[in-house]
Structure formats: C-alpha cells, structure tokens
C-alpha cells in the first residue's frame, strides 16, 4: 500500500469514527436532534403565545426527540386541551405529553 493510500485510509477511518460519535442513543439526542427540538420548542411557544385564550408565561414547553411536554398551570381543562391541540399542529411534533394542571 502506498503512503497516499494509507494516509487516505487513515483519514477516512477518522471521519467515520467522528461521524459515529454524532449519533444518538435512546437516552441522549444527537446534535441535529437537539437543534430540531429547539426549533420545535420555539414554534410551540410562539403558537401558544399567539393563541388568545392561553397565557404563555404559565405554560412551560420542553422537547426531546420530537416529543413535546407541556407543563405549568392553566385556568380550565379547555385551555389545557387547546394548548395540546395547538402543539400537535406544529410541524415536527411527534407527540404531546400534556402535564398541565388546572388551577
């Protein structure tokens, strides 16, 4: 094997190892998933803020691998259902865990 082929093989192997390090596990999201989750969270917060019947400061939003968890307090069960409905309409949302508590 020539020196240039060894050099190329070494860097190819290094590239493959680096790429494998960016993958996700069931407990940990990859870099791409974290970015996607951040975008989803931002879109959900904006959609809730635009909904006149919901108070955005009382609803927390967290996203992990496309699953959105809503937490906090709302004034009625209708508001809780509306928050979940608004969330489901956002592109990229795979599921909603509605942990909102009615005051």
Plain-language structure description:
This protein has one domain: Histidine-containing Protein, Chain: A, CATH 3.30.1340.30. Strands 1-2-3 form a three-stranded mixed sheet. By secondary structure, the protein is α+β, with helices and mostly antiparallel strands. Strand 2, helix 3 and strand 3 form a beta-alpha-beta unit. The N and C termini lie far apart (73 Å). It has three helices and three strands, in the order H-H-E-E-H-E.
CATH class: Alpha Beta
Q: Quickly give the CATH architecture.
A: 2-Layer Sandwich
Q: How many structural domains are formed by the residues?
A: 1
**Quick check: average pLDDT?**
82
CATH topology description: Histidine-containing Protein, Chain: A
What is the strand arrangement across the widest sheet?
1-2-3
The unreliable regions are none
How many helix segments? 3
C-alpha termini separation: 73 Å
* Residues in helix, %: 40-55%
Largest sheet: 3 strands, mixed
Could you give the count of β-strands? Answer: 3
Report the radius of gyration as a whole number of Å: 21 Å
- Structural class per helix/strand content? alpha+beta
Overall outline: rod-shaped
Order of H and E elements: HHEEHE
Q: How would the blueprint of this fold be written?
A:
Layout: H1 3-21, H2 31-50, E1 59-64, E2 67-74, H3 77-88, E3 95-102
Parallel strand pairs: 2-3
Antiparallel strand pairs: 1-2
Keyphrases for this structure?
50% helix; Histidine-containing Protein, Chain: A; rod-shaped; 3 helices; three-stranded mixed beta sheet; 103 residues; alpha+beta
